[in-house]
Amino acid sequence: MKLMKQLSAGLLSAAMILTAVPVNVLADDIAVDDIDEAVVSMAATPDEAVNVAADEPCMDETFTASVDGKEMTLITKEEGGYSYTSWGDTEPTYVSLYKVIVPAGTKEVALELGAESLVYNYDSNGNYLAGWVEDYTKGCTETTVKVDSNADGEADYIQVQNPYRGSDEEGWSGGEIRFAITFIVDNVTVSVNDNKLAAPTKTEDGYSYTPYGASEATYVPLYTYEIPANVKEVTLDLAVESLVYNYDSDGNYLTGWVDDYTKGSTKVTVKVDSAEDSYEGYEGKEADGIPDYIQVQNPYNADYSGGELRYAITFKQVPAVKSAKASASKYVYNGKVHKPSITILTKDGKKLASKYYSVSYSNKSSKAPGRYTATVTYKGAYKALGKKTFAYVIKPAKAAISKFTSVKKTKVKVNLKKSAGVTGYQICYSTRSSMKGAKYVTTKYTSKTLKNLKSGKKYYVKVRAYKTVKVNGKSTKIYGAWSAKKSVKTK
Fold first, then answer.
1. pTM for this one?
2. DSSP 253-267
3. 181, 97 Cβ separation under 8 angstroms
4. What residues contact residue 184 under an 8 Å CB cut-off, 6+ apart?
5. DSSP secondary structure string, 83-131?
6. In Å, how far are 215, 228, 322, 345, 346 from 349, measured between CA atoms?
7. pLDDT at position 201, please?
């Protein structure tokens, strides 16, 4: 049972080993029995290029696509998938669209065409991008095209057409579009809690696997991501539907079983260090403390063909973060800039190197009373941790009363020393030195007359400055410290 499950999960057909046929048409678009007919003469080379009489349009669709000298074999054909409207026509013409899966980071693709062709890049809106030639009566059988020539983040459409045959009584003839090509860049985004990981290290041919029944190993790129040791799982966003399996360092299948191996996913969450799947009669292996190898491959066809392994992912663990602290959360205005420093410690007791994070402040020159934030943004191996924000406040300086006098039998006047950067002042007064039963008034000015007092009574007063700020859209006051008390007896 265990053997059968592992073979089914990791089964890779011998078709993934390069053969004389350079293009596989995936079963999503064409039935397996129709593949040979769909890619007739796909192996044609420039020396074997089709020669067509001048009055007979060439309809050859054979080509090979290569990246860094390696032929791309994962190609899907969509009949009538590309349309164009020729100059002077009112109805569009539909031709085949070939979708070529190319490795992540691919910028250019070399094409070898089965017949002499003019090759142009267009965007998804039908706008011409690149491919100008001086003599459009002459084509080529070899050319290199950009994947995204206008760098808009969308792959171009490569229009392959016959050369023009020169002017005749009806105008220019020829130039028939035979087919189009576009590219699916096999990118993967790896994230933790929606925090995208930093770019991985790529090792070309860094992962090998021997398909069941094959005598030779298959080599594919290995992407290694650095992550904190306490990250238990990551989410993969894939460019195309894929089967995803966990393997250990010895090539043993661990987990990733699916009921329907002809269907893949474009988003899947995987364990960094998984335990082996267990089932009736067999206890699975526990997590071993060593990061798994995540194998990303094509879904299988109904006859078990397909399932080509495209690349693998693994992880390099770095010490987890133990704590992140700000040096202070409260300051008092003194005319100088106040910003807390941030210290981050890892679980091995060391300070996290500054290259792994940056600190930004809501106000770089925070002097005035107010509420501010310092935000840590993790980078590199710690990018999975996202951001952490620390709030801090600068309070108004301690207020001071310059004079407290009785001006009438029922009135006293409070004079204040001006405080910098404040909205106003809160005055507290009472007939008791304990300030019990005190009353409060506010003013925006540095003097305030208190009215309706009792004659011949001793009054105590203290004051503090405040700054009004917005917090979550609501106004709130930040108060400074109370001044020393003063007293006066009404007349």
1. 0.72
2. EEE---S-TT--EEE
3. yes
4. 99, 100, 101, 102, 155, 239, 240
5. EE--TT-SS-EEEEEEEEEEETT--EEEEEEEEEEEEEEE-TTS-EEE-
6. 49, 14, 8, 6, 6
7. 95
Three-class SS state of 382: helix
Q: What is the pLDDT of residue 74?
A: 87
pLDDT in tens, 354-369: 999 999 999 988 999 9
What are the distances in angstroms from CA 180 to CA 93, 116, 228? 12, 15, 44
DSSP string, 24-41: EEPTTTS-GGGHHHHTTT
Task: Give the CB-side neighbour count of residue 391, counting CA atoms within 13 A.
Answer: 4
Phi and psi of 342, rounded to 5°?
-115, 130
Per-residue pLDDT tens for 412-437? Answer: 999 999 999 999 999 999 999 999 99
Q: How many CB atoms lie within 10 A of CB 3?
A: 8
Q: CB within 8 A of 449, min separation 6: which ones?
A: 407, 411, 412, 413, 414
DSSP 226: E
Contact in structure between 335 and 39 (CB atoms under 8 Å): no
Task: Characterize the bridge pairing of strands 370-378 and 424-430.
Answer: unpaired
- Above 70 in pLDDT, residue 280? no
What secondary structure letter does DSSP report for 46?
G
Report which of 254, 262, 82, 44 is spatially closest to residue 161, judged by C-alpha positions: 82
Among 315, 326, 331, residue whose Cα is nearest residue 270: 315
Q: Name the CATH topology of 321-395.
A: Immunoglobulin-like (2.60.40)
Same fold, 321-395 and 401-489: yes
- CB-based burial, 458-472: b 16+ in 10 Å, e otherwise: ebbbbbbbbbebeee
Hunting for tokens 């009949």 — which residue is that?
79
Domain ranges of the chain: 40-185, 188-318, 321-395, 401-489
Reported residue count of the chain is 491
Contact of 277 with 255, CB cutoff 8 Å: yes
Question: Where do we find the tokens 């620390």?
Answer: 390
Classify burial at 349, counting beta carbons within 10 Å of its beta carbon; exposed 0-12, middle 13-18, buried 19 or more.
Answer: exposed
Assigned fold of 401-489: Immunoglobulin-like (2.60.40)
Q: What is the pLDDT of residues 378-411, one digit of tens each?
A: 999 999 999 999 999 999 999 999 999 999 899 9
